[in-house]
Amino acid sequence: MDFSFTNEQKIWRKTVKEFAQKKIKPIVREIDTNKKIPEEIIKDMGKLGLLAPTASKRYGGADLDWTMAAIAAEELGRADISLAIPVLYLVEAAWGFILSKYGTKEIKEKYLPKITEGKAFCGIAVTEPEGGSDILGAGKTKGKEKGKNWIINGEKIFISGIRESSEWGGVHLTLARTDPKAGHKGFSFFAVPIKDNKNIEKTLFEDMGRMGISTGGFTMNNVELPSENLIGEKNRGFYYAMEGFSAARTLIGATCVGAAEGALELGIEHIKNRTAFGRKLGSYEGIQFPLVEHKTNLESVKLLTYKAAWTMDKFYKENKGTHHDIAITAAMTKLRAPVRAFEAMNEVADWLGAIGYTKEYPVEMGIRAVRSYSIGAEGTLNIMRIIIARELLGKEFLPY
């Protein structure tokens, strides 16, 4: 066993960290207030290879492996505690990979080079108004063949990147039921462009956090797509979606670790310098012991996160292991990372006292942002528990 990073990985971390600390960290409050990531940052991320970096080099990606992808996610989270830029990064890294791996040549040539340059957006659209976690039972979006084309009808909601996709162009990988009688084997995946589409109605929500990237939904009314927009094989969409979710969950773990460690670094600086009752705050056991607990918890999450990334690299690079190995480690990462990150940030706010409840310090952005990962993004915590239990006990013990 070797827990060290390679020289290449260390150089990559240094490169991303220097960029993130210099260009992103100073403007995080601006991003949160203006509710938009500056175009200059998007372009710089594209030049550095931070937009859909896991996509093939043939289409503008970097063929980045998952350990390297997790390193970048961690450093972006450390710099942007609001998590807006990390969300943009991880969504495109996870779903850009799926698009690159399973998309048709035509659709990849059309969109991926633009996505990797920051001129188009790649997102995921699975959740529906009546089928958040219960997509299998309640998913109503339907796809029907019409000659060589497809007609899509349905509604997707709580989707990241609606404004970005509407303004930049791009696609959302959208799950639709194409065989109503086949259960989870009756879904297909489609690349749906929503910009300037008269058959798509869009909605925007205002989240409590991650303000720099939009959330919303869209309704498809007889949206006609050419056959090239089908991702992979017909009726295999559920499997592609689950593959992408495992990737996204792993990168969520990394962003949570980075953001929480960034908050702890801020807190440590405060308790080493703040004096109360004639002593530095850091000299009180009531401060030291929680610090130790949170640092240890985050270290355990970091190890789990990089195990998940390592498991994915073993599978995709060496053809070792299975999708089940990836699913359980990614779910465990997603189960623990948001909770541990929230706890650490909340503790730091306590150390800061009254000023921790103001916008003078960035920790409140992190508290608002990281809750999205435990509430629902890429699956609720109880869905993670169901996935882990399924892998431990078998599908016959699923509660549905």
Please state roughly what percent of the residues sit in beta strands, choosing from under 5%, 5-15%, 15-25%, 25-35%, 35-45% or over 45%: 15-25%
Number of domains: 3
Order of strands in the sheet with the most strands?
Answer: 1-4-5-8
CATH class value of the largest domain: Mainly Alpha
Q: Order of helices and strands, N to C? A: HHHHHHEHEEHEEEEEHEEHHHH
Helix content: 40-55%
CATH superfamily of the largest domain: Butyryl-CoA Dehydrogenase, subunit A, domain 3
Class computed from helices, strands and strand pairing? alpha+beta
The N- to C-terminal Cα distance equals: 39 Å
**Stretches with pLDDT under 50, minimum 5 residues:** none
CATH topology of the largest domain: Butyryl-CoA Dehydrogenase, subunit A, domain 3
Rg estimate, integer Å: 21 Å
Backbone shape: globular
Provide a short characterization of the protein structure.
The chain is of the alpha+beta class.
What's the SSE blueprint?
Blueprint: H1 7-24, H2 28-34, H3 39-48, H4 66-79, H5 84-102, H6 105-117, E1 121-125, H7 135-138, E2 142-146, E3 149-160, H8 162-168, E4 170-177, E5 187-192, E6 200-205, E7 215-226, E8 230-231, H9 237-273, E9 275-276, E10 279-280, H10 285-318, H11 323-352, H12 363-375, H13 381-393
Helix pairs in contact: 1-4, 4-5, 4-9, 4-10, 5-6, 5-9, 9-10, 9-11, 9-12, 10-11, 11-12, 11-13
